[in-house]
Amino acid sequence: AALDALNEAVVDCRRCPRLVEWREQVAREKRAAFRDWDYWGRPMPGFGDPAARILILGLAPAAHGGNRTGRIFTGDRSGDFLFAGLHRVGLANQAESVHKDDGLRLQGAYMVAAVRCAPPANLPTPEERANCSDWLEREVILLPDVHVVVCLGGFAWESALRLRSTLTRTPMPRPKPKFGHGVVADGEPWPLLGCFHPSQQNTFTGKLTPPMLDEVLEQAKALAWA
Ligand code: DU
Ligand code: SF4
User: Fold this and answer.
1) For a pocket test of ligand 2, which of 127, 132, 137 has the largest count of ligand atoms closer than 8 A to its C-beta?
2) Nearest CA to ligand 1 atom 12
3) How much distance in Å is there from the Cα of 57 to the middle of ligand 2?
4) Which pLDDT does position 121 carry in this prediction?
5) Which pLDDT band, with edges at 50, 70 and 90, does 22 fall under?
6) CB burial class (10 A; 0-12, 13-18, 19+) of residue 116?
7) Sequence-separated (6 or more) residues with CB below 8 Å from residue 193
């Protein structure tokens, strides 16, 4: 219930002027293929199992994906790739994530973005990341069963390092643990696990393959239920 309240509050956030403008412009102009859609055009709530042991941290919603459908990783190719993997390893009840009412459920996992509004060129600024970190902090506090945070890409990794440092009131580690696929950064309150981001840039080029994704998700399960 506290998670629901938080997610009801986050969708009204207008703290980042550049992102508010962009998310709404994209929602007005739309993409031709989606002209019949009522775009969401607002911040992206978290999604998944409130008792999650695995937290999956993304970068930011895609302009015509989450920003269109209103659910994280829903309606874009990154989401197709990611949910197919989550389904293969048993963390999702289905492989498809098409729209909010498609019946998708996560089991043991919860998903959230480091920045909750779609940014131009998929690239938020450091200031926007800092603005949105309040929401992330408030949300993870409401997910007490989390045992591991899977960071999709270097931006999420950096956000998670900062989040740990805030939550534990300790300075950022020096040297900073370096992001990599399958890399674990131990620490309180939970270890971080790196995973290449399932963007087309990575999945079309073979930098991230389905077996590579499954391997990291299995690693996450092992850490989560150790
Ligand atoms: O109605 P509900 O069971 O509280 O689910 C709300 C919302 O969260 C729904 O979109 C499914 C998702 N969800 C989930 O993915 N996994 C869970 O274990 C519980 C809820
Ligand atoms: Fe608010 Fe985060 Fe969106 Fe900025 S990115 S407007 S802080 S929800």
Assistant:
1) 132
2) 48
3) 15
4) 95
5) very high
6) buried
7) 148, 149, 150, 151, 182, 183, 184, 216, 219, 220, 223
- Using a 10 angstrom Cβ sphere, with 0-12 exposed, 13-18 middle and 19 or more buried, the burial of residue 38 is exposed
Report which bound ligand comes closest to the CA of 21: 2
Is pLDDT of 1 > 90? no
State the pLDDT at residue 194.
Answer: 99
Domain borders along the chain are 2-224
CA 49 to centroid of ligand 1, rounded, Å: 6
Side chain identity at residue 16, one-letter code: C
Closest ligand 1 atom number to CA of residue 51: 18
Per the structure block, which two tokens stand in for 120? 């131009």
Type of residue at 51: A
The response to whether residue 105 sits with its C-beta less than 6 Å from ligand 1 reads: yes
- How much distance in Å is there from the Cα of 62 to the middle of ligand 1? 22
Q: 146: CA distance to ligand 1 center in Å?
A: 16
Enter the CATH code of domain 2-224: 3.40.470.10
> Residue 58 forms beta bridges with which residues?
113
- Looking at residue 168, its amino acid is T
ipTM of the complex in this document: 0.94
Confidence band of 53 (pLDDT split at 50, 70, 90): very high
Helix extents (H) in the chain: 2-10, 17-29, 66-69, 77-88, 126-141, 154-168, 200-203, 210-224
